[in-house]
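Notes to self after the call with IL:
- keep both proteins in one doc
- input above output, always
- annotate only the second one for now

Protein 1:
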Amino acid sequence: MRIERDTLGEVQVPDDALYGAQTQRAVENYPISGLREHPLFIRAFIQLKKAAALANLEHGTLDEKLALAISAACDDILADETKFARHFVVDVFQAGAGTSFNMNCNEVLANLANVKLGGKIGSYKPIHPNDHVNMAQSTNDVFPTAIRVGTLLLLDQLLPALDDLGSALDDKGNRFSGVIKSGRTHLQDAVPVTLGQEFKAYAAAMRRSTRLLRDASSELRILGIGGTATGTGINTPVGYRFTVVRLLSDISGLPLEATDDLREAMQSQLPVVAVSAALRNLALELTRITNDLRLLASGPQTGLAEIVLPSVQPGSSIMPGKVNPSLLECMNQVLFHIIGADTAVAYASQAGQLELNVMMPLMAFEVTFSMEILKNFLPVFTERCIRGIEADRSRTEAYYIRSPSLATALNPLIGYAAAAEIAKESAKTGTPIPDLLRKKKLLPEEKIREIFTPEFLAGQADRKE
C-alpha cells in the first residue's frame, strides 16, 4: 500500500493502483454491487477527457507538455481498454452525480501522464487530477455528457442487431405467405390470416420500434459540456464549450453539437429518459411478439402447435423428451429487466433538483446495461430461434378449415342468415364449412375452390386497385 492525501486526510491506496485517494474512498464507501461502469461509458469518459485537454491547449489555458501527456494517457487507455479495466473500480451505485467515477478517471489519467513525464504514481506532479485533467470541467457537466456519448456508442452496436431481427421476421413472413390459418381475436377463432401475414406484422412492429429508438437517440447528440458546476461556464475560457464539442466529435466519430442552454442540459436528463422509454417500448413490443410465438408453439399435442421451434436444449430434469421454448423464455426475462430498468430511470429523472440531477449514475447504469444485455442476446435469439422456426401446415389447415368464422367469407355470396346457419351446423357437427357447402349445393365447386384460398380469405387488404 502507499499513502496518499486528499482534502480529508491520509488514505491507503494499493501500491499498483493507477487510481488515488478519492477513488479509494469510494471503494470503501460503496461496496455495493460489484458492478462496474460499462466499457463504452468508460470509453466516452476518456474520449471526453482527451477532448478537454486538447481544448484547453487550444485556448492556451493548459501547458502544451501537460496537455499532450494527458492526451497520450487517454490514447493508451483507448487503445487497450481491457488492460486498464481493473483500475476503474468505482461501483455503479456511488455518490450522487458521479463525482467518484469522474475522480477515478482523473486520477488514473494523471498517474499515467505523470509516468510518461518521468514522475511517480501517486505524486501528482507535474499533472494534478483536479487542476489539469479536470481543468474547465465539473462532474456536473462531464457525467451527463459521457452518458450521452456512451449511449450513442452502444446504440451503434445494438441497432444492427435489431435490424437483423426485423429482417429475419420478414424472411419468415415471405416463407409462410401461403400458410393459411385461423385468425384469433379475444383468443377465440376469427377469420383466417396467413402465418406469413402474422410474421410480416411482427417485422413491421420491430422496424417501427427500432425507428423510434433511433429518433429518440438523436437528442443525445446535444451536449452541455462547458457548463461546469451549474451551467454558467465558470472557470472555462471563452468559446471552450464549442471547441471541446468539436474535438469530441472528431475523437468519437459522432456528430455532436453544443446545446443552446447549458442550464437545461445540466438540470434535465430528458434525452436519456427518452432513449430509456424507447427501449422500454421496444421491449414491450418484443415481449408481445415473444409471447405470441410461445403460444403458437405450445403443445406439441395439447396446445396450438402451429409453429415448430428449433430444439436447443432438453426441457426437463424429470420428463424425458420434453423440449421447452427456452430462447423465448430467456428473451422475456431480458425484456422484463429492460422494462423494470426504465422505471428506475424515470424515478431518477424526476429526482433532479434545481441545477443538477444527482441520480445520473443510476441512469447511466440502467440504460447501458439494458442495451448491453439486449445487444448480447439478440444475435443468438435471431439465429437459433427465429431463423429456425417451421410451420406445421397440417395443423394450421386442420384448425382453420373447421373454424366457424370461415362463414364470414360467405356473407356476400349467400347472405348473412344462411352463412350463420352454416356456421352453427359446422360448429355443432364438426363438419368443415366447404363440405357443408358442397353437401347443400349452395355454391358451385369452382367457387368453393376459389373462396378457400389464402388470396381470397386473407388477401383482400393487399389487393392492388
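Protein 2 (the one to annotate):
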Amino acid sequence: MSPRILLLASVAVGACLPYDALGDVRPALADQGPSAAHWLGTDHLGRDVLRRVSAGGAAFCGPGLGAAAFAALGGTLAGAAAGWNGGALASVVRTVLGAIASIPSLVLVLLCLMALGPGPVQLAFAGGLAGMPALAAALDARITSLRTSEFVLAARAHGIPPGRLLWWHLVWVNGRDIVAREALAVVGSVLVLEVTLSYLGHFGVAEPAASWGNMLAHGLSTGCPNRWSWLAPAGAVLATGWATTLGPVRR
C-alpha cells in the first residue's frame, strides 16, 4: 500500500479516537519531556502531546473531505459544461471561475467565514469554493482536448447519446484522475487554511479543543521547554501536506 495512503489513513483513525480535552489538563505534569508514559512529553498545561496531535487531525478531516466533495461536484459540473459546449457558455463559466481564482484562498475563506460565521461546515464550503476553479479548469482542458478527437467523432457516428459520451467516456473514463488529484489537493489546502486560522485564532479551532494550528501557536508563544509541543504538530502538517500532493496526471 502507498505510504501516502497509510499516512492519511493513520491521520483519519487518530482523528476518530476519543479525546477528553479538559480531562487531559494536568498542570503538575507541565513541560515534561518524552517518557514511557508520554512518548512526546507534555505541553504547558500538562497535556499529552501525542494524544493532542492525534486528536488534532479531526479539526481538518471533516472540513477537508467536505471541501473536496463540494469542489469535486461543482468543479466537475462547471468543467464538463465548459469543455463540452464551448462558445458563450464556456466563456461565462471560465470568467466566473477566473474571478473566484483571482482571490487568494486565505482571503476568500476569511471573507466567507466573516459572512457565514466560523465553523467546520462554513470552512468546508469556503475551502471547496476556493478549490473549485483549479479542478474545473483542469477538467475543462481535458474535455476540450478530447471533444474533437477521433474516438469521440466515431462514438457520435455510432449514435452514442451525448450524455453518455460526456459523463461516461470523457468525465469518468478520461477525467476521473484529474478530479481525484484536484480533490485531494483541496484536502491539503484546507489543512493549511485550518492550521493558519487556528494559529491566528478567532476563526480557527479554539482551546481547549485540539488543533495542529493552536498547538503550534501555544507551543511557540509560551516557550514550552518541551520542543515536541510544536515540533510534533509541525511535522504532522508537513507530512499530511505531502500525502495530499500528487504528481502530474499522465495524459
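Annotation: The CA atoms of residues 28 and 69 lie 44 Å apart. Residues 61-172 form one domain.
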